[in-house]
Amino acid sequence: MDDPVQGDQLKTIVERIERLEEEKKTIADDIKEVYAEAKGNGYDVAVLRKVVALRKRDLGERKEEEAILDLYLQAVGEQA
Q: Dihedrals φ, ψ of 67, to 5°?
């Protein structure tokens, strides 16, 4: 690490990461505000979070998981 170019490069990388971490925090705060707004409008935030998570996943994967869940529920005596 005696090479000053590598030191400069490393410093630049660290500074970029720091900026991105700050942006990530800002975005996380913005998301919290949107969830708070949704709650204030009467929406169930836990369900809303689940909807957001489900929409990130592949539809086929979701349907397969739902089918397995239904099968398991039926096996333990719960009706899906």
A: -65, -40
Tens digit of each residue's pLDDT (9 = 90 or more) over 69-80: 999 999 999 875
CA 29 – CA 52 distance, rounded (Å): 17
CA distances, 72 to each of 37, 51, 60, 80 (Å) = 36, 22, 18, 9
Instruction: Report the amino acid identity of residue 71.
Output: L
Location of structure tokens 């539809």: 59
The reported pTM is: 0.71
In the block, tokens 């096996």 appear at 75
Query: CA 67 to CA 32: how far, in whole Å?
Result: 32
CA distance 72 to 75: 5
